[in-house]
Amino acid sequence: MRALIAAAIGLAVALALVLTISAVGAPTGRTSPKPLLTTVPEHP
């Protein structure tokens, strides 16, 4: 029974955190226009 109560409390805390973050909104800012390099450039 304690495990069920602990799981319910954990789920409620996680849900409250998600709702808080979504209420605050995404941080404002700009993204870089330069693409990220995903490979190492070849050396001549």
Q: Care to give the gist of this entry?
A:
This protein is mainly alpha-helical. The chain has 1 helix and no strands. It is elongated and about 65 Å long.
Q: What report would you give on this structure?
A:
By secondary structure, the protein is mainly α. The protein has 1 helix and no strands. The chain has one helix at 2-24. The chain is elongated, with a radius of gyration of 21 Å. It starts with a helix and ends in a 20-residue tail after the last helix.
Spatial extent as radius of gyration: 21 Å
Query: Would you list the SSEs in sequence order as H and E?
Result: H
Unreliable spans are: none
Tally of strands: 0
- The amount of helix comes to 40-55%
**C-alpha geometry:** elongated
Q: What keyword list fits this structure?
A:
single chain; 44 residues; mainly alpha
Layout: helices, strands, pairs:
Layout: H1 2-24
